[in-house]
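We treat protein structure as text, and this decision shapes the records that our systems exchange. Because each token names a local backbone shape, the row as a whole describes the fold. An entry from our holdings is shown next, in its original layout:
>
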Amino acid sequence: MLITTVTCENKALFESMAPAQWFDLLELPGRFVLGAIDEDDQGQYAAGVLVFEVEEISPEEDAYLIAGTLRWLYVEPQAKGRGVGDALMEEFFRVIGETGGVHLALCDVPMDAEYNELCAFLEDWGFTFSIGDVFETTLPLGELLSNSFFSGNPGLPVVSLSESPSLALSREIDRYTELPSVRSDLPELLPFCDMDVSCALWDKLELKGLMLVLASPNGSLEPLLMRSLSSDPRIVMGLARFAGQKAKEKYPMEKPVRLVCRTQAASSLISFFLPDMQPLLMRRGVCDYAGLWPQEENAPELSEQEEEEVLREFYEGEEPSEGMSGDASMSEEEREE
């Protein structure tokens, strides 16, 4: 059996095994797609796929931890019982181990009886599960902008990133990566963003607010970051309204917009301007990677207090119970015997 990295050159072999969104932006920093190739009497065939992302999470100010987050796991029916799932998981842990500094593996498994065997499979790999909410939806741009949250002028001198001073923007983006819960790969993400819809609020050459909107090759828009450096709610509203106006000028109203919120703060914001949106109930899984897989000698160890803080943040204030589940939308897979 061969486990390979899925690239633009070979993705056609695996595209039927996962939603198209996971094959978009394969070059995106921190995103990994692994494919399994097995062989039987008929020859070689694509047997399974695993999608994950390496991301930075922050339970509190000045506390940063790196997590490997499973997004999708699938094994072809003809390959079940041949160790494909185990081979993909082994490669998953090997890759995040080489990344360095990874403390936790996370996943979200939708609440459905058919996923029970998947959870049992992941438990064999050290995951424990509890229940959590995730806000995730895709809706037309026109429906999103019809909300009163986006009506009216921004009220602040917000400008597109395409109109922002490039040197100052580069410097301030680097500064933003030092903030709690902000992805450290923001500079690498900029080329994938719509620079007309993405926007910023400047005070001279100092950034006061920033909104990044990803333009996906599958045709959707996805807000990646909306952050203010102050507690003034007008900044967030101004950024959202400006981005909405620019999107309205540039795109048709049926343009899909994907919204994903996994933190308490983001969920509070989305419930404010989409009050009818209901969260998805998930089995949230966490695996203490340090306790499962050998770490590099100089890798920092996660203290008991740090682990409690991470889990408290990840579960949005819920006490973790025996049997938890983490940060992914994943397909059905039967437990490997």
About this structure: Residues 43 and 261 are 43 Å apart (CA to CA).
